[in-house]
Amino acid sequence: MQVEPSTVVWTTDPNLPLPPPKKTGRPRKYPPLSALPRPESLEKVAQQVPGKAWRTVTWREGSRGAQRSRFALLPVWAAHDWREQAHSPRVQEWLLVEWPKEEKQPTKYWMILLGGQAPGWRQAVRAAKARWRVEQDYRELKGELGLDHYEGRQWLGWHHHVCLVTMAYAFLRSEQARLKKNFWCDLDAAARSEEPADAPG
User: Fold this and answer.
1) Which of 45, 58, 147, 195 is the most exposed place for a label (fewest CB within 10 A)?
2) Is 122 within 8 Å of 59 (Cβ atoms)?
3) Burial grade of 95 (CB within 10 A; 0-12, 13-18, 19 or more)
4) Packing angle, helices 155-178 and 131-145, rounded to 10
5) Is 12 exposed, middle or buried (0-12, 13-18, 19+ CB in 10 A)?
6) What is the spatial distance between Cα 87 and Cα 14, in angstroms, rounded to a whole number?
7) CB-based burial of residue 184 (10 Å sphere; 0-12 exposed, 13-18 middle, 19+ buried)?
8) Residue 194 above 80 pLDDT?
9) What is the per-residue pLDDT across 128-163, written as a single tens digit (0 to 9) for each?
């Protein structure tokens, strides 16, 4: 998910061990606010990333050639509502920052949540840059296949309409890919493997 540079995060795990219990009062469930490290904005975090941590990644070939830029990928913990001592689960996420060499400041920030698993560089960048492809698909679904033509008032009818439009789009996409000369996947391979072998002559 793309986020604003003012978003605050921790760069070290804020899930600290609890202080020893006092003789009186209820035991603490969470560490005191003063014990937590100070969160920083994504813009400030990006400025502190060392030069060797930046990599140039190509995510696709476009009409104007290879689409590439410079990125950094590092683990962070979101610190939303930390001043109010909101005790949301603080889990490790991954911050992806885009900072082209010709720019004075980082241009875009994304947060990636994969359950602690580290994403690959190209996987992370392609997912972050997929917004353009999603918008193109949505435009084609509306313009070519009538996604926005439904005028009913019932959920079931709308659900059927969306399912049929999506299936038609998937079929057209698979046909388009099958007819492409340099497509990397042979869609007919599975069908050919199921054909019976010729009988011995």
Assistant:
1) 195
2) yes
3) buried
4) 110
5) exposed
6) 11
7) exposed
8) no
9) 888 777 788 888 888 888 888 888 888 999 899 999
Ranges of each domain in the chain: 2-129, 134-185
| Rounded Cα distance, 79 and 67, in Å | 32
Residue found under tokens 């996604």: 147
pLDDT in tens, 33-82: 777 788 999 999 999 999 999 999 988 877 778 888 999 999 999 988 77
C-alpha gyration radius of the chain: 25
pLDDT band at 183 (very low <50, low <70, confident <90, very high): low
DSSP designation for 112: E
Taking alpha carbons only, the member of 45, 41, 61 closest to residue 53 is 45
